[in-house]
Amino acid sequence: MRQNLFKIVIIFLMGTMVCSAQLSNLAKIDYTRLPIGNSDVGYDRFRGLFNYPIKLNEDSFLLVGLDYSKIELSFDKRVTNFDIDAIDDFQLLDLNIGYTYKMNDNWRVGARLSTGYSSNLVKKLTFEDAVFSGDLVFINDKRKDSTVSKPYRLILGVSYSENRGIPFPLPFISYYRKFHPKWSYNLGVPKSNLQYHLSEKSRVKLVAELDGFTANIQDGLLVNNEDIASKAIMSIIIAGFRYEYKITKHLELYANLANIISSSAKLKDKKHNTVTTVNKNNFYYFKTGIRFKI
Fold first, then answer.
1. CA distance linking residue 58 with residue 197, whole number of Å
2. Around 240, how many Cα atoms within 13 Å sit in the side-chain half-sphere?
3. 5 three-class SS
4. What confidence tens digit (pLDDT) does each residue in 220-238 have?
5. pTM, whole model, 2 decimals?
6. CB 61 within 8 A of CB 100
7. DSSP code at position 129
8. What does the alpha-carbon distance between residue 251 and residue 164 come to, in Å, rounded to a whole number?
9. Phi-psi label, residue 103: left if phi above 0, alpha if psi -120 to 50, beta otherwise
10. Dihedral over Cα of 160, 161, 166, 168: its sign
């Protein structure tokens, strides 16, 4: 009971930037690796994101784009209760449309809707491969306001994504404050961090965040010679370090090295019942990439 409560608290306290990142990142390419370690499954993820902003007027923008991921699972030879080759490769694609406008001098609203697919793609796409997500946030950004002694940014809203590995809406809360010339923090859901600004171009972060995915298994997967799995779900909670370096004002390199706090890998049937759980005892999580942001 205590362990479950701890996990819930961790999930709730980890804060920010799913929708904010989608609205601010114009392009991003990254690579994530979760080594098998002592568990029965690990994965490699290659991701590319592109958003194109369209200026409607001085206070509002429309963003259209896509977010593509290729996930390669690696299983330990101890896994014998299903065909591991049938689900060793998944592809995810989201087509996004976002809108942001300035409501008044203090608040800006941002929204994102997306649809796409998440599947092992062993045949043509069907409706069962489709995934949907959306975000609605309200932003009060005072980071560059000279009248504020301690710059801050507050984001409030809600976020839902069928690709996240946690298939239910999450509150979106993000509070950023720079309390020292070299120190700042960001508290919220689903990411949080404490930042030390090494220079104008580089910073180190202590981060906690959620990661994972949900994907359809086309034609189903026979498990234990009796059950048929139709969904693969992986969710992880990580905590560790992130380094960011600004090459230019808008172009940035980043790298994460983190420890796994909690992880889950399940196969579920069409009624959302868990038909099997894959042993997850991964220790390390690594991500690196480059992004162009506004």
1. 32
2. 19
3. helix
4. 999 999 999 999 999 888 9
5. 0.84
6. yes
7. G
8. 26
9. alpha
10. positive
